[in-house]
Model the fold of this input.
Amino acid sequence: MLVLGVDPGSIVTGYGLIEKTKDNMKFIHAGAISSPGTIPFYERIHEIFRSMTEIMNRYQPAEMAIEDVFFAKNVKSSLKLGHARGAALIAAVSCGIKVFEYSPLEIKKSVVGYGRAGKDQVQAMVKVILKLPAMLGPDTSDALAAAICHINWTRYEKKY
Done:
């Protein structure tokens, strides 16, 4: 089963694909959808939707794991994050991909073992778990962490 992890953001949206075979996880591809903050916001959201649709059509993942909304002190940032999530969610629905949402705490706990872990700890553990030759950027690592969390969660669910 191929899982797409997504770390939404209005400036940078990270994504990563992991293939689950029996009890193994294999890194397939990862990257980031970036757009300069100087272009209009609606164009950035459209680029997220367009790019996510292209990635989904190319790799055809069975499921998508995405970071759920969290409460931030800056309301404007939260709203922009919600728009970015919405673009990725609409892309998944239009491509017929099942969507699973996980809180940042659940993702970090699943990957690092501690829900309040820092980005550097998440990056390091993603590198170790997936046996990557080098650490990836924080947005890409967070997206892969969401996919790892989903794979771990579904592995646990199926046992009981």
